[in-house]
Automatic annotation (TrEMBL), chain A:
Residues 40-104 form the Transcription factor CBF/NF-Y/archaeal histone domain. This is Transcription factor CBF/NF-Y/archaeal histone domain-containing protein. Residues 7-32 have a biased composition (Polar residues). Residues 1-35 are annotated as: Disordered. Belongs to the NFYB/HAP3 subunit family. GO terms for molecular function: DNA-binding transcription activator activity, RNA polymerase II-specific; DNA-binding transcription factor activity, RNA polymerase II-specific; protein heterodimerization activity; sequence-specific DNA binding. Keywords: Activator, DNA-binding, Transcription, Transcription regulation. One of its GO terms (biological process) is regulation of transcription by RNA polymerase II.
TrEMBL record, chain B:
Signal peptide: none annotated. Keywords: Nucleus. It is found in: Nucleus. Residues 148-163 have a biased composition (Polar residues). Its main location: nucleus. Residues 16-79 form the Transcription factor CBF/NF-Y/archaeal histone domain. It comes from Glycine soja. SUPFAM superfamilies: Histone-fold (SSF47113). Residues 83-170 are annotated as: Disordered. Pfam families: CBFD_NFYB_HMF. GO terms for cellular component: nucleus. This is Transcription factor CBF/NF-Y/archaeal histone domain-containing protein. The lineage of its organism: Eukaryota, Viridiplantae, Streptophyta, Embryophyta, Tracheophyta. GO terms for biological process: regulation of DNA-templated transcription.
Amino acid sequence: MEDESHNNTLPNGFNTGSPESPFLKTSTTTTQHNKEQDRFLPIANVGRIMKKVIPPNGKISKDAKETVQECVSEFISFVTGEASDKCQREKRKTINGDDVIWAITTLGFEDYVEPLKTYLQKYKEIEGEKLSIPKQMRSEQRLQQHHNNYHDQNNQPFNGAYASSNLISQPPYVPTDQKFSLTFSPNSIQSQLRQQDQIDSVGHWYE
Amino acid sequence: MVMADEEENGVSIQLEFPKGRVKKIMALDKDVKRVSSEALFLVSRSTELFLQFLAEKSAQVAIEKKRKTVNLEHIRVAVKRHQPTRDFLLDELPPPSQAAKPDKPTQPAGRPKLDPAPRGTRCIDQFFRKPEPENTAQAPGQPPENPAQAQSPENPDQDQAQSPVPVDES
């Protein structure tokens, strides 16, 4: 329930005018815990992923989970900062996939680049398919989210786009000039620009 | 439909982390204006890869030290063994002195200050130079002091309970 509430506050968190940064330190443990949750990934997700890679009989102490929770949140800020710096140098306002991959490489995590490109291809394939039946997909995604299963990546972009368009005059998904692009970027741009049932087009770009 | 897609691809593209939370963390950086869905997806996935990497290495350290429970010290050792990770995380971890490790008195003094200036990486020291009330455009939105302070009250008790025997890093 708390996670849903935080998801609903997307507009505030995404609005650069007045982003909520609750760093005030209070003596109340509950209040502090709630505010910490705003800037950390859910510890349940962190713990679940950690359990997948440790030995079956292994355990994880609570402070270890909390520390890793902070580490991965710091990783997001680190990558975001690097990608954002690159955008500013190139006078662009929207962080795109190329910026993230460049940041990952610059920060020394080259091993992640190939897996990320593979996942991105599959992401675009499914994105193209789902655009053909958006209503059905959205209802299914809401069901998944309601059952606290995996958070489908398709539901969030819709919410994000809708919320952003209300707060910011320009839609966040409009691409700007890029000085360079990898082979998969035009596909994404085409998909975002058309916003139509263009499975053939997506397939064409892929092949 | 979603399940069928997963089976066909053989690789699930379901994200483990809620995208709203990832986006919120990204937006803590005042310089971040807009993020495409593609970038958000890539950041979420790379964070999963990083978490898996960190958990694997920490588990290896725990095994080396004959432990079944992964604790804070194992994470610290795992972070130190990977140069890119220690570059941005070492200062984030609670100092050993607060973790009640009397057998390592030289750790705080000997902490290396690595500056990745050649790659133009943002220096982690910026967190310490700028106070919280003054959120300038250059300062990231996540001061590392808070996590350290939040962590310190609990660490001694838990570390003592879970690691009664002193653990050597080497």
